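Structure ticket #2291
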Amino acid sequence: MANRGTLTLLILAYLLLSYSNGVTSVGPCRPTDITITQTKTNKVVEGKPEYTVSVKNACKCAQSRVVVRCYGLSSVESVDSRAIRPVDDEKCVLGGGRPISKGAPLRFKYAWMTPQDFPVLSSQIHC
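Resolution: structure written out below.
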């Protein structure tokens, strides 16, 4: 009986720790709950089409330190560094690392020859 109680306690401790750090599949949210869409604005800047990017969090919990792959974020127009900022040659952080909440999308614009992909690499989940 003592072994069964110890095992139950260990399982509960593992689940509690997994849920509280917010980065495992046990928690209610995942970085894949962040969706990034972009559309052309019909504006042309220095011969390049302009795109509006919208970042939405579908999870009930806020997600901060959202990092996307951006390869330096190429643009012929200034990009709002409060919305997206390169951290190295490959990655960018969104919103200055601040939380992105459900119902409060983050938006920015850039102008380049083709739309860029911004796959989410990681985030910190706050429940």
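Closing remark: The longest helix spans residues 2-21.
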